[in-house]
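Hi! If you just cloned this repository, the fastest way to understand the data is to look at a raw example. We've pasted two of them here, unedited. The first protein comes first, obviously.
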Amino acid sequence: MTLSNLTLGLGESGKDEQIEMLGADALMDSLRRHGVDTIFGYPGGAILPIYDAVYKAEEAGWLKHILVRHEQGGSHAADGYSRATGRVGVCFGTSGPGATNLVTGIATAQMDSVPLVVITGQVPRPAIGTDAFQETDIFGITLPIVKHSWVVRDPSEIASVVAQAFLIASSGRPGPVLVDIPKDVGQQVFKYKPIEPGSIVPAGFKFPTVADSASILGALELIEKAERPLLYVGGGVIASSAHETLEALAKRYRLPVTTTLMGKGAFDERDALSVGMLGMHGTAYANFAVTECDLLVAIGARFDDRVTGRLDSFAPRAKVVHFEVDPAEINKNRKADVAVLGDLAISLQKMLEISQTRNVTPCTQKWLEQIDVWKTTYPLLTPPEEGDIYPQEVLLALRDLAPDAYITTDVGQHQMWSAQYLRNGPRQWISSAGLGTMGFGVPAALGVQVALPDQKVICVAGDASILMNIQELSTISQYQLNTKIIIINNHWQGMVRQWQESFYEERYSATNMLNGEPNFVALANSFGVSGYLIDDRKFLKTKLKEALEKDGPVLVDVHVRRDENCYPMVPPGKSNAEMVGLPESV
């Protein structure tokens, strides 16, 4: 086998022969063997040897490199790519500021359990520790926000590190890993021996356990006895592709289902058993249901503060069953009466199989009738058809015009309205939940669109959030991605303004975005992106329809009612039942 063959990605797998090649070329071949065909990145001095290998890989035709305009955009794009496909996302950045620009994206992926392999260039080995130009200890900086990390000090380690990186990132509870490669490691010629995926397991690594039958049976018995059960579903169900089994169990036992922000799409929100999202800006009926249930079945959820409100009043009358892959989450925030530890897809399938051997008589009819009363009494707002455009009606229009779209969001009021009003299939809801990263939406959308070029991809953004990574319009334009961006523009940092109104006596400090706000339509056009302005409700649906049907990238700036607040809302320190902003008629 020749060096050129291997560099071009034509090497045979499973051979023991060793070939002299550059460290950078070995890296690219190792990535190819792990199924990588798309990388998001930005070059720089320390990573130049690797980018020279990227050039060869693109010339060979097996790799597509997407040049983002900021490393943070690259990490979010890889994140969106991963969430939409279930594959490991890959991004590159150089040393120093290139690496530190990736930190927010790494932390976003860590909080939301998204598998990423992040590869950074580093100064040459002799310069490490000398405060060399563009040197940072990215290994040390990211230790708290990765599953694992490596500094590759010998090119002979590259194949092994890549194999370990993909295994760790994608197994158990997924998450990001970081591989830091000094420049001279990429330039060094050595004898490369390929390592195939799954053929090496890191020392001390443990695969997820398989839940024991006793815990599954214990969970099943509690479900069968409960009169007011509630399934509380998180992002783990999406990550493990367990949504079909979840649906079968919910329908078999007639169990109402509420989801977290990360769990959206795990259960069809058009189904009568759905009560939507729970928590701080969840539906009133979901929050009442969780307060009154007698059994809470948490599946791939972690009882985070935005869901629980005041923890001691969360599901106060309920026994708790907790299905979880990560043992660190069991009993962390809420003690479980039954803990089912293991891969969620396997655990739920096993429970479904056991249940099919038993006589099942659902006893939840009265409970479902009570939930229907709450749904009727405490509906989400129906926007009035007068005055300024309500932000909620923009989401309702999107729901009608693009019911099957992949949706990304930025963070703020528009994110919560999107979660309340949009209905998404599995992996079609992509939003920064745990870290709440403003600027996530646009680069995540381009990552989704690159992964799924034939799908409709829509980013719902806020006028403040979009400015944090608006340079990625350049990337979207360069690759002529068919991505649509809808700005819910109230000229505020909307969620912060709402809190200032509610809890800080209307002292609006540093939240008014009107002064200095760009003409978004002109700005979009300057990037080569088609721009639309909607500031009159009578044109809302027709212009949105036109924008969504137009070929190529489009940005729509929708001017909405400035002081509209996002309700219901559970104030900090209150229980989920103590919501504000419920209908006045109640």
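Ok, and the second one:
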Amino acid sequence: MNTSIMITGANAGIGKETARQLALDKNTELIYLACRNLEKAKAAQKELTQATGRDIFKIIIMDISKLTTVKQAISTLSESIDALIMNAGGTGGKTPEKLTKDGVTEITAGNLLGHVVLVDELIKHQKLNNVALFASSEAARGVKQTGMKRPNLESNSVEEFISIFNGTKFKDNFDAMQVYGWIKYGGTLWMSSMARKNPDIKFISMSPGGTRGTQGMDDLPFVKRVLLKHIGMKLIMPLLGLSHSVQEGAKRFVEGINNPEFESGTFYASKENLLTGKVINQSTIWENFDNPSFQTNADKAIHSFV
């Protein structure tokens, strides 16, 4: 049973809705809202308390793209948590291709590297008891209907994953929407590797699906943002089974940490050609997700930046 849960990126969108749904379960005793902005975190805390009638939300400040803040936050955590939901991410802000001081692109830092350090710190300090869930995406396997191509790796070697995480793989053709899928692919493999290394903790990758009302597209160029977020996600994609509500997206995360039928080391997302509906094991669509060598290589590659 997961009585204490930490959610990154919890002040808005899917993260906030996930916190609300979890609080409706009386077995939930404490929810850490892991956010980078204190003012926004306080506003979310107040709204969630009012909406659920439960004063169980505690703020923990960390910017997942800045490793020092992640380590500092965990060092001040006084007790262990049962579950971690790694929801923070997006398309990397205004400069997704820019390198951070850790040597990865900003899109890698915000979606993956910070979460890698977060998990490592929790395990090192024995502060993670039951389950870790990584917000992956159908983009990790490709989504033809939305123009997101399947990550076309040549070897899935450590060196190739490093080139993805530092951006050199893409040279002058850095499209944040496409690179996002490659990063999620690498992150999903990392989670499966962690499952093999830590058999006492469940590691689940779960896509929230094509979710309306999220902030993941807010940093895209204006025209692309309008077309994808406001026209595509709200008007066209629901008719094609390619988008659903933020409540449905958050429900996947809630079930992901609580449903014993979900197996450690597995990536769950929508059926092929869909972004909504029932989730299935993605290795039935693309065998790469079940390749131990690829998993180990992605793990080694991302840890080379820590």
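That's it. A detail worth noticing about the second one: The chain is about 40% helix and 15% strand.
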